[in-house]
Amino acid sequence: MVSRLPITTRPAHQEIAVSYLARLAALHDLPADELWHQVSRPKAKGSPTRRLDGDLLATVANQPRARLERAVTELRTPEPDWLALRHEPQRGCWRCDARHPGGPVLHLLAHHHYVCTRHHVWIGPPDQEDHPQPDLDALPEIVTAQHRHRRLIRRFGPAATFDAVLTGFLICAHRWNFADLAFPGDAWIEWRRRAELLIPPGTEDDTFSTSRLFACTYPEAVALAELIGSLHWRRVVAHGPDGQRTFATEIGRRLGLRDYRPIVIKDAVAHWMEQDCWRPPSPPNTDYRSLRTFGGPTFRKPSQDSDTKRRDNALWFSRHRRGGDSMLHHRTLNPVVIRDWSTKMEVFDGALAQTANTTIRLRKPLTTKDLLALATTEWIRSDPISSTWLNTATEPVDWHRRTGPRPPTGGRPALPHERPRSRQTRTAYARRSANTTSKPGTGVVPTESVN
């Protein structure tokens, strides 16, 4: 027996059911468990697990079923392209959500939704839920980048755009992290300028978030994605040295680098040209529909020590004002840091280093002199790459469907000098190591770093 609630409120666009129920419960001063019991049914006969029922929710919330199907993510009919949506709920534009009472609104946004173009508010990738969203009136180029991002969706499709923008972020992060010299017009100078507006010096404890670092590099990441997501440019890169130099020139123009040429080591562009340009775009690691919490009373949340990591990153950023390292360790870039075909590395930092290096096969160990020589050696692939996928693919590119589970990416537990410095995380590592019964070298290292 269910009863209709007296206060009616509409669900927000792309709001998850747990968020909508929490707001209804708050407006009526009801226990969340009691409301959940009224709008759910057992998953199977005799099963203790309950799942959301759309008809019951429509009755209790006093809302048309059709309206709920358009707004509530779990009730969307027909089901959306789940891979095109983020698997992690997050806050939307605070000004858009102000008309929805009852508490915070959690949305399941599309991968390409970074900016509210109506109110010029940075939404960004999933990060701290309670962190203030910065205003972008002083940075109109970020709003313009969102419009360009949407055009890429219409041109390349969600699969190629997802991979291309994250790869653009990856390249920008490496450039920001390792750059020592900046030229006039260098994008690195622009990232520092935007960071001073979004994270003013001296206020890092309050204003720092990795999401704001993504905002600093967003225009250049989208500009690079216009090349990386294009099948035409991928074929140009795979064809031979002339095409590679043409691509490098265009990349350099968009990053403000004069006479840019990819080098053998510490160059994410060279790595992409060698390893990734001729392969299909990497899909997300998972999707919201496949999570065990789908249609249930809870949802997947970030790790409990995310605020501690944010403060550690804020301290490090305040010392050198470079955001590349925090971006590279953020969970958003994981799908392009560790791809299905990436070489398995023992630790996550090894996978990060691999994304900025090309394949080097030498019989002897590299000396300091060798590394210095490689740091100035131009990378060129002399022979064309023959790729069945690249020869037959058409735009828009469809999602790359895995035939099996995602390959494992970990190796062994972190060594003592690799362990985080925070007390809480050290305790977790010690507890996990004490419970480990596997052979040495067979442990699993987390592949996502939640900031």
Kindly describe this structure:
This protein is mainly alpha-helical and 451 residues long. Helix content is 43%, strand content 3%. The chain contains 19 helices and six strands. The strands form three sheets. It has a two-stranded antiparallel sheet. Strands 3-4 form a two-stranded antiparallel ribbon. The protein has a two-stranded antiparallel ribbon with strand order 5-6. Strand 5 and strand 6 form a beta hairpin. Helix 9 packs antiparallel against helix 11. It is globular, with a radius of gyration of 24 Å. The protein starts with 16 loop residues before the first helix and ends in a 17-residue tail after the last helix. The C terminus is likely disordered.
| Number of continuous helical runs | 19
Strand content: under 5%
Instruction: Measure the end-to-end span.
Output: 44 Å
Query: Which strands sit side by side, in order, in the main sheet?
Result: 1-2
Estimate the global geometry from the Cα principal axes. Answer: globular
Biggest sheet features: 2 strands, antiparallel
Mean pLDDT: 87
What's the Cα radius of gyration? 24 Å
Number of strands: 6
What order do the helices and strands follow? Answer: HHEEHHEEEEHHHHHHHHHHHHHHH
Summarize the structure.
43% of the residues lie in helices and 3% in strands.
Q: Which terms summarize this structure?
A:
451 residues, mainly alpha, two-stranded antiparallel sheet, globular, disordered C terminus
